[in-house]
């Protein structure tokens, strides 16, 4: 079967997304591959499709049982043979799977990384015809990443045990440092490295200063997402249960999920969410990479995430189907203090300073007035234009800004007059006229800038300093000393005007816009009937609804209202296999309208 025919027959797509064909070609030519592509960009297809055209079995190494299970169920729903081996299976079940593999009846084998440390399993794999290995969530390999796992680090032995078998590694996030670490540690041989743009054009990003506990802001946001599915992330197990209970009292179908809950409760919350039986999961990061659900319409963070990598991975769980989705991050200065305390308690290693640096990056992101998408892209060494309409900063009216040029020049002058040898807190103490002993000993209480900044609070000065750091007017030297850049010198000379959002100096409540809807009332009724049919079919087949058809496919069915098989196969996400299983039921419903 040709590549294009296979794409349509099994996956229901007529065209490839950007970069997919390039990676598929590299895999089929037996090259090592590293693909860095945002969630929802179509990474799975890049290894699932070529396997169907190659001899042998593909071994997929994945970090979570839930993620492996969903992938296996999804492949089987598309008529593709796939199995997983895990510690949850009996010896008899594992033996049956091994027999299927030996008789070449399986195209995909999913395993957790720790299984590759088992000599018996490695010897068993060496008896199979493996076309290539897939390492999913490959950022877990790197100690410089945000979800490092020791079992992933041991995957460096793959090239020793299977020197002639190519490796295809995939992740949604990797800085250049993490990318280099993945390549080096996995011993990838002259890999084809393909990096997609970080920009997720269907995601709208909002970041707000949290007012009190943020619950009123959360309710305002949820008014715009009635009957839609979403995830709310909190920092602690206690707050997870508290927020879930609060939402339940407000009439929301919500469940709590964290690592401390009994396994049966976690499994029920997970399965109910996947099956659309509850609307919201309130979770810690324990509810993480295992989410492969395509119709999540919003993600909320009730406090600041640990890192920008964590944040980007977590908001990436919204809108995997390509339809519009929305994110909200609520934060306060206390979040930074709490996160710093966690890092302070870590043992003294080179990674401790790395953790501090990552914390400062997410703090600057939260306080930033620049395009949110652009800021995320820059962190991951990507360069994009401002989104214009897909984040709160780009949508903010100019009237919401204040001129801080005079204050900025005072701060820059203080840095210059102290010979660029001090950190920001010390500079601010000078501006505010502190009697701190070190300032007096250094003679800095006699500087012309001493005490000229007492009209701003220390927090406001820190915000102004962050703004200058964002703009590149100052830069951090060794020991967090603040240095003037060429732009900083120009600002000091009065050549540039500096503005700041009022919200950053005076916290106020901000509105979240209601997402645009695309269906008129008549079509909305048809769409709801199609959703009900999908739920019924999913229940009968013991599948999550999104594995029958995605929301995007349902909306295209609503818009096109196909009358026969040929027209239905033109809808994205409906291939021959799925039509044979579900197509007639949907056609009958559409033709009744």
Task: Give me a quick take on this structure.
By secondary structure, the protein is of the alpha/beta class. The protein is 46% helix and 13% strand.
Question: Shape, please?
Answer: globular
Q: Please report which band the strand proportion falls in: under 5%, 5-15%, 15-25%, 25-35%, 35-45% or over 45%.
A: 5-15%
CATH H-level name of the largest domain... which superfamily? P-loop containing nucleotide triphosphate hydrolases
Largest sheet: 7 strands, parallel
* Rg result: 27 Å
Q: What would the average pLDDT be, to the nearest integer?
A: 90
Instruction: Report strand order across the widest sheet.
Output: 3-4-2-5-6-1-7
- Write down the CATH topology of the largest domain: Rossmann fold
Describe the 3D structure.
By secondary structure, the protein is α/β, with parallel strands linked by helices. The chain has four domains: 3-195, P-loop containing nucleotide triphosphate hydrolases (Rossmann fold, 3-Layer(aba) Sandwich); 203-392, Rossmann fold (3-Layer(aba) Sandwich), CATH 3.40.50; 405-497, Orthogonal Bundle (Arc Repressor Mutant, subunit A); 521-592, HRDC domain (DNA polymerase, domain 1), CATH 1.10.150. The protein has 28 helices and 17 strands. A seven-stranded parallel beta sheet has the order 3-4-2-5-6-1-7, with helices on both faces. It has a six-stranded parallel beta sheet with strand order 8-13-12-9-11-10. Strands 14-17 form a two-stranded antiparallel sheet. The two termini are 37 Å apart. The relative contact order is 0.09. The mean pLDDT is 90.
């Amino acid at each position: 079967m040709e590549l294009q025919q296979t794409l349509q027959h099994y996956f229901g797509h007529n065209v490839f997304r950007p970069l997919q064909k390039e990676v598929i070609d590299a895999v089929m030519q037996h090259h090592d591959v590293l693909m860095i592509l945002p969630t929802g960009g179509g990474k799975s297809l890049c290894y699932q499709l070529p396997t169907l055209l190659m001899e042998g079995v593909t071994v997929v190494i994945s970090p979570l049982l839930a993620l492996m299970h969903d992938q296996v169920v999804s492949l089987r729903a598309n008529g593709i043979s796939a199995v997983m081996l895990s510690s949850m299976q009996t010896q008899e079940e594992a033996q049956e799977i091994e027999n299927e593999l030996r008789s070449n009846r399986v195209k995909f084998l999913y395993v957790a990384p720790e299984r590759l440390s088992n000599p018996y399993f490695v010897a068993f794999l060496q008896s199979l015809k493996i076309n290539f290995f897939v390492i999913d969530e490959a950022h877990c390999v790197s100690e410089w990443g945000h979800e490092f796992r020791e079992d992933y680090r041991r995957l460096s032995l793959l090239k020793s045990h299977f020197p002639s078998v190519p490796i295809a590694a995939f992740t949604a996030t990797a800085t250049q440092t993490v990318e280099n670490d993945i390549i080096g540690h996995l011993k990838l041989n002259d890999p084809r490295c393909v990096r997609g743009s970080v920009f997720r054009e269907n995601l709208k990003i909002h970041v707000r200063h949290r007012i009190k506990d943020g619950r009123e802001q959360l309710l305002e946001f949820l008014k715009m997402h009635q009957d839609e599915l979403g995830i709310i992330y909190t920092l602690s197990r206690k707050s997870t249960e508290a927020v879930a209970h609060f939402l339940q009292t407000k009439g929301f179908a919500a469940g709590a999920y964290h690592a401390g809950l009994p396994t049966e409760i976690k499994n029920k919350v997970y399965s109910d969410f996947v099956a659309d039986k509850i609307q919201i999961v309130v979770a810690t990061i324990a509810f993480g990479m295992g989410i492969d659900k395509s119709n999540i319409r919003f993600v909320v963070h009730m406090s600041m995430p640990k890192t920008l990598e964590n944040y980007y991975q977590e908001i990436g769980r919204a809108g995997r189907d390509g339809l519009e989705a929305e994110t909200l991050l609520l934060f306060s200065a206390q979040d930074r203090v709490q996160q710093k305390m966690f890092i302070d308690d870590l043992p003294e290693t080179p990674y401790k300073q790395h953790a501090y640096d990552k914390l400062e990056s997410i703090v600057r992101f939260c306080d930033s007035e620049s395009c949110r998408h652009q800021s995320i892209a820059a962190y991951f060494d990507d360069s994009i234009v401002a989104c214009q309409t897909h984040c709160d900063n780009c949508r903010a009216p100019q009237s919401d800004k204040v001129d801080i040029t005079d204050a900025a020049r005072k701060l820059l002058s203080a840095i210059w007059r102290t010979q660029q040898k001090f950190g920001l807190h010390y500079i601010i103490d000078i501006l505010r006229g502190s009697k701190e002993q070190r300032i007096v000993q250094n003679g800095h209480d006699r500087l012309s800038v001493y005490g000229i900044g007492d009209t701003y609070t220390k927090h406001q000065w820190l915000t102004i300093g962050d703004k200058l750091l964002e703009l590149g007017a100052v830069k951090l030297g060794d020991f967090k000393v603040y240095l003037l850049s060429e732009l900083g010198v120009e600002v000091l000379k009065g050549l540039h005007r500096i503005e700041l959002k009022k919200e950053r100096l005076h916290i106020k409540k901000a509105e979240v816009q209601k997402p645009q809807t695309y269906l008129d009332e008549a079509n909305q009724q048809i769409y709801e009937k199609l959703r009900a049919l999908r739920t019924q079919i999913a229940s009968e087949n013991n599948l999550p609804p999104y594995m029958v058809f995605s929301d995007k496919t349902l909306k295209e069915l609503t818009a096109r209202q196909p009358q026969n098989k040929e027209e239905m196969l033109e809808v994205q996400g409906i291939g021959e296999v799925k039509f044979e299983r579900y197509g007639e039921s949907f056609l009958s419903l559409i033709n009744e309208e």
